[in-house]
Amino acid sequence: MLPTSHPIGGSSKLRGKSRSSLLWLYLRRLFKPSQMDFQYTFWTMLQLCVSPKTAYRHTSYHKQTKNHWARDDPAFVVVCSALMAAIAVAYCLAFSHSFGRSVLTVVSAVAVDFLAIGAVIATLGWGLSNKFLRRQNQHSHAVEQSVEWMYAFDVHCNAFFPMFLLIYVLQLALCPILLMHSILGRVLSAALFAAGSSVYWYITFLGYSALPFLERTEVFLYPIGGVAVAVPLAIVLGINPTKLVLSWYFGYIP
User: Fold this and answer.
1) Of 234, 242, 156, which Cα lies nearest the Cα of 200?
2) 91-134, pLDDT tens digit by residue?
3) How many domains does the chain have?
4) Does residue 1 lie in a domain region?
5) Is residue 152 part of a domain?
6) 130, 162, 195, 225: least CB-packed within 10 angstroms?
């Protein structure tokens, strides 16, 4: 009988070559907007808000058709970066006092808040899942699978978008209430940040649990427990997350 898969050593070389070509394709499309599927990106963003499981169900279809889990289209990252820049400009118009500080804030929002911190979280999730969460192969001839770093970053991007709508967009709209010198402002601000953080970790959990070769992915839900403890503590201590964030970026004095 012919073997049904490649030996593990050979498959690892093939995977390495495949990932290199995927990265090259990804970077090449980054400079060719005509090759980006923005329609599918906006559909995915909608599903992440109304039915995130549906969005990840299409991830498995992507694996079946292209033999990798990660996106080969940077449209999602481009759209999220543009949205981050736009909301940062809106905050600057509302709270900033200088053009130079506004430019720095916009660059920081995209390069640090979204991309750099996202890369760190993706790297931690990638390392954790590959080292501790992979199922042990039951068959000696089975191809060993692992989480692609680019997929881990996709998971961050997916989880970031609904959080962005809550913590960035909705917060700006509710600022007149959130900045009130009352317990109502503190409670609403803490609740908003708790909802955004919880949604982020829930969608992160869905992203890793969509991979059939991982187990115990509920560890990605554990940070929600920390959020549940932090919210009442912040309210009791009189901490308003919105005021803290505005103070950090704009020197806002309550």
Assistant:
1) 156
2) 999 997 788 889 999 999 999 999 999 999 999 999 999 999 99
3) 1
4) no
5) yes
6) 225
